[in-house]
Structure to design on (500 residues):
C-alpha cells in the first residue's frame, strides 16, 4: 500500500439476505445487477457463515469480532458491553472517523459502539421498554404465521427506511466529491451502511412484486411436517404455526422476498454509482454482506433461527481495485468475524485484541501460499426473555461447526445432526446415526463443546434476564429520550386492497 494514499472503506450490510437469492451466487431468477457487477470487479466468498442466525447476536459479533458466548450477546434483547472495542473503535484508533448510516440493531443507550457519527438510526426504541413505533402495520417482523398470511404487494416500512439510508449515503459521498473537486484535502473515509431489506414483512411495492409473481418457483427442498423431522425442527415448526403452509402463501411470500432483494440491489446501485461518479471508487475497499440468511420455505422453514444453509450462510462480496483479484471466488470456510479483521487489516488499523477474526487479505491475494483453517462456528441460544421467538423459560442452547465438508449441529439435550455438504448440499441426509461417521461426530462434537458450556450459558442468560427485567421496568417508567432513532409510522406498512 502506498504510504501517502490511505484507502477508504464502504461496508454495506443488509438484513436477512440469503446468498441463494443473488445472481452472482447462481440464482437465475432474481435481478441483482449491481451486486453482480460488484462481484465481477472483485471476489465472491462461497462459504461464509454468520456467528448466529439471528439479528442482534450476529451483528454484535460482527462488530466486536467475538462470538456470542464471548461478548454475552445471545438474544435480540442483550446489550453489547460498551467497554468491548469494536471494529469501529479500531478504525478510530487508526486515524479514521468511522460513520454509520442506518441499521445496526444495538440494544441500549450506546447506539454508536465506536462510530463517530450515525446519520440514520434504527426504527425501534433504543432500550427494552422504550416507547415503540406503533407496530409494523401488517405482516409482522417476527417468526409468526402472520408474516406469511399477510404477504403480497403494498409497502414495507423497512423499504422506506432503506430509501432514507440510501439518500443519506449518496449525499455523504456527494459531499466528499464536492470537496475533492474543489481541491480540498479530504481525509479517507470509513463508511458503514446498514439496510433493513430484505427482512420480512414479505410485502413489496407492486411494480417490483409483479416482476416475480408469475415466475416465482417453489422451494427446492420441500419438507412435509412429520415425526421424521429432528425434534427441535419439529417443535419449532409447531410453535411458529408452520406445520402446513398453503401454496398461495408460499408463492406470495417468495415473490415478495425476491422483489425486496431486487429493490435492495437498486439502492445499492445508487450508492455504488455515487462512489464512482465522485471519483472515489479506485481507492475504496467495498464489502457487501448480511447478518444471516432467509429460508423462504426451504425445508418447510421460514425466516432464520436454524443452522440450515439458507439461514446460517451469508453472501459476502469484496472489491478493491488493484488490491484484490477480479471476477474470482473463494470456496474456503469463512466466518463473518473474518470480515471484521479483514477491514481492519486493509485500512492498517490496530487489531482488536480478543477478536476471533482472521484477515482474508493473504488468502485472497496469495491463496497458494496460505494455510487456512477451514472452520466456522455459529451459535443459537434463546429463552423466553430474549424476544427472538416463541421460546420457553428453559430455552434452547445450540451450536454449529462447519469444518471442511462436514457440518455438525449440536442441540443441547437432543440428538446432533451431521451433513456432508459436498455430497449433500441441500442437507437431506443426516449422517449422525451412521456408524461409518461415528468418529467424525465425536471429533466435531468435542470441538463444539471446547470452551462452550451450554449449562453455564443457560445460567448466565437467566441472570441477564433478571437484570433485563429491572432495566425494562426502569425504561418504561422513566422513558429516557432515544439518542438515535428513525421514526417508523404504522401507515408506512400496508397491503394493497386488491392483490394480483
Amino acid at each position: 500500500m502506498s504510504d501517502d494514499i490511505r484507502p477508504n472503506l464502504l461496508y454495506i450490510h443488509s438484513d436477512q439476505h440469503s446468498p441463494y437469492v443473488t445472481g452472482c451466487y447462481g440464482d437465475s431468477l432474481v435481478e441483482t445487477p449491481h451486486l453482480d457487477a460488484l462481484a465481477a470487479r472483485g471476489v465472491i466468498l462461497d462459504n461464509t457463515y454468520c456467528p448466529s442466525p439471528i439479528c442482534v447476536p450476529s451483528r454484535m459479533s460482527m462488530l466486536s469480532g467475538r462470538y456470542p458466548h464471548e461478548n454475552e450477546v445471545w438474544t435480540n434483547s442483550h446489550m453489547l458491553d460498551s467497554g468491548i472495542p469494536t471494529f469501529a473503535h479500531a478504525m478510530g484508533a487508526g486515524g479514521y472517523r468511522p460513520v454509520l448510516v442506518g441499521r445496526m440493531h444495538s440494544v441500549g443507550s450506546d447506539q454508536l459502539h465506536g462510530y463517530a457519527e450515525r446519520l440514520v438510526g434504527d426504527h425501534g426504541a433504543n432500550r427494552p421498554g422504550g416507547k415503540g413505533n406503533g407496530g409494523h402495520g401488517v405482516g409482522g417482523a417476527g417468526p409468526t404465521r402472520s408474516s406469511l398470511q399477510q404477504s403480497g404487494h403494498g409497502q414495507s416500512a423497512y423499504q422506506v427506511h432503506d430509501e432514507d439510508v440510501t439518500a443519506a449515503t449518496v449525499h455523504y459521498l456527494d459531499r466528499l466529491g464536492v470537496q475533492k473537486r474543489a481541491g480540498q484535502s479530504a481525509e479517507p473515509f470509513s463508511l458503514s451502511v446498514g439496510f433493513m431489506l430484505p427482512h420480512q414483512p414479505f410485502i413489496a411495492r407492486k411494480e417490483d412484486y409483479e416482476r416475480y409473481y408469475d415466475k416465482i418457483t417453489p422451494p427446492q427442498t420441500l419438507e412435509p411436517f412429520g415425526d421424521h423431522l429432528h425434534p427441535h425442527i419439529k417443535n419449532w415448526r409447531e410453535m411458529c404455526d408452520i406445520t402446513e403452509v398453503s401454496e398461495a402463501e408460499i408463492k406470495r411470500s417468495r415473490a415478495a422476498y425476491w422483489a425486496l432483494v431486487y429493490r435492495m440491489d437498486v439502492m445499492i446501485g445508487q450508492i455504488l454509482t455515487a462512489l464512482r461518479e465522485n471519483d472515489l471508487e479506485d481507492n475504496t475497499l467495498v464489502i457487501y454482506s448480511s447478518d444471516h440468511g432467509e429460508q423462504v420455505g426451504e425445508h418447510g422453514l421460514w425466516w432464520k433461527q436454524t443452522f440450515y444453509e439458507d439461514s446460517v450462510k451469508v453472501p459476502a462480496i469484496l472489491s478493491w481495485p488493484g488490491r484484490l483479484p477480479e471476477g474470482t471466488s473463494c470456496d474456503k470456510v469463512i466466518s463473518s468475524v473474518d470480515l471484521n479483521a479483514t477491514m481492519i487489516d486493509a485500512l492498517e488499523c490496530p487489531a482488536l485484541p480478543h477478536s476471533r477474526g482472521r484477515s482474508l487479505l493473504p488468502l485472497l491475494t496469495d491463496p497458494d501460499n496460505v494455510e487456512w483453517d477451514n472452520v466456522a462456528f455459529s451459535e443459537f441460544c434463546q429463552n423466553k426473555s430474549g424476544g427472538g421467538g416463541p421460546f420457553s423459560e428453559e430455552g434452547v442452547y445450540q451450536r454449529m461447526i462447519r469444518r471442511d465438508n462436514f457440518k455438525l449441529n449440536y442441540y443441547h439435550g437432543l440428538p446432533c445432526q451431521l451433513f456432508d455438504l459436498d455430497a449433500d448440499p441441500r442437507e437431506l441426509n443426516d449422517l449422525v446415526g451412521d456408524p461409518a461417521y461415528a468418529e467424525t461426530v465425536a471429533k466435531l462434537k468435542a470441538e463444539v463443546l471446547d470452551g462452550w458450556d451450554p449449562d453455564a450459558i443457560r445460567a448466565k442468560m437467566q441472570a441477564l434476564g433478571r437484570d433485563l427485567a429491572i432495566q425494562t421496568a426502569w425504561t418504561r417508567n422513566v422513558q429516557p429520550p432515544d439518542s438515535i432513532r428513525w421514526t417508523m409510522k404504522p401507515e408506512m406498512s400496508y397491503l394493497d386492497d386488491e392483490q394480483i
Notes: Residues 247-277 form the longest helix (31 residues). The first strand starts at residue 8 and ends at 15.
